[in-house]
Each structure stands twice: as structure tokens, then as C-alpha cells.
Amino acid sequence: MEVTAITxxxxxxxxxxxxxxxxxxxxxxxxxxxxxxFSPKKAAIIIKKxxxxxxxxxxxxxxxxxxxxxxxxxxxxxxxVRMRRYWPTARGSAHPIARRMCHCKVVLTDDKKGAK
Length: 116
Known about the structure:
The protein is an alpha+beta fold. 33% of the residues lie in helices and 37% in strands.
């Protein structure tokens, strides 16, 4: 059985959070939570929120007895839309600035071969 949770349009660059997301893949949900809790990265807050949501989905929607023992099959950060801003520069001109956002997706599974 697979359980999914998605956080959309998180105000963070996907590029900066991908190494932490890769570190969580293949771990048990409880171990992945420990990895994320002790990480100083901004991405840790978003991944932790999504991981806790996936655990709650497994418990409440699918009736899993021990959702902490499920394996993190997939943890990805994908690019989302960009907020367009402009930075004023010399002689009345302006340079465009892109504020990046991302989607965080966590998939938990209870079979052992689904993990890497």
C-alpha cells in the first residue's frame, strides 16, 4: 500500500532542498523524521511537514497500525511557479527577479522491495 502527501507552492528553491530529500529516501518514516529534525536547512521544515502529513494520512485514511514503520519510497522537490519581482537599478531601469517556489511530494510504502 502506498500513501501520498503533497505540499504545494512552498516558498523555497527546489535546488537547495533536493539533497535533503534524497537523504530521506529509503529510510523508515521514523528515521527520516529524525534526519529532518536535526537538519539546519530551510527545506527540513517543509519536508517534515509533508512527512508528518503522509504519516497522518496512513493512520487516519488507510488504518495503518504503525505508520512510523513504513518506508519512504519517494521524497522529491519539484519546481513550481515563480513569483516575478523587479529590482530597481540605475537610470530608471529595473532587473527582473524570480522568487522560486517548489512542490514537496512524499510517498510512503509498507513493502520492503519498494524502497531503494
